[in-house]
Amino acid sequence: MKTAVIAGTLVDTRMGTELLEGHGLKAEGYPAGRTPTEQSLFQIGPAEERCAAVGRLIEEGKRSGCSRVLIYCNSLSATLDVPALSKEHSIPVVTPMDVYGSYARKYSRLGVLTANSQGASGIEKAMLAASPGTIVFTAANLALTQGIEDGIPPEKLLETRGIGPLLTYFQTNGAEAVVLGCTHFPYIKEALRKASGLPVLDPGETLPELVRRA
Prior knowledge:
- The chain is α/β, with parallel strands linked by helices.
- Helices cover 54% and strands 18% of the residues.
- It has twelve helices and eight strands.
- A four-stranded parallel beta sheet has the order 2-1-3-4, with helices on both faces. A four-stranded parallel beta sheet has the order 6-5-7-8, with helices on both faces.
- The longest helix is centred in the first third of the chain and has 17 residues, at 47-63.
- It is globular and about 50 Å long.
- The mean pLDDT is 95.
């Protein structure tokens, strides 16, 4: 079985296909945009146009032999009616939003780092739907995502994108873990762990198994 990986940019599309292939799954990438800024603008455009564009990518994947879809972009997932897309195109669709509820059921306070506010909103909704009592602290930083696209080393990104003070903010408010709310962010996962001393929760660690079962 082959999976169509639909993501926001060329870089996270590649990251998503490599993630699945690293777990022994066949994958083919279909980027919905080229750059983080382009993708953010796409996400605040008309919902019908966005769903139609993603639908075209799904159909392209089906023609290439894909039998399931992974939308490897948090913020894009948050702006789509995923169940409706799955039904319309008769194909299972997995997204990172399928993972976040489990974190909220385990932790009472979470710091969430995202690329933009669309992603932050979607993740918070998923968490509170699963655990209404969980307190969620969110921060969006598209410049961090752009820095990853540019290949800046993780430690340098933490220094130059204000991530150190942000981690202090999370800790001061009692966050028990840091959640990666952008599919680019596994790139800085180990640097975040070293800098914060907190668990860093990466939905990418769960997504391959969800795709396998889809």
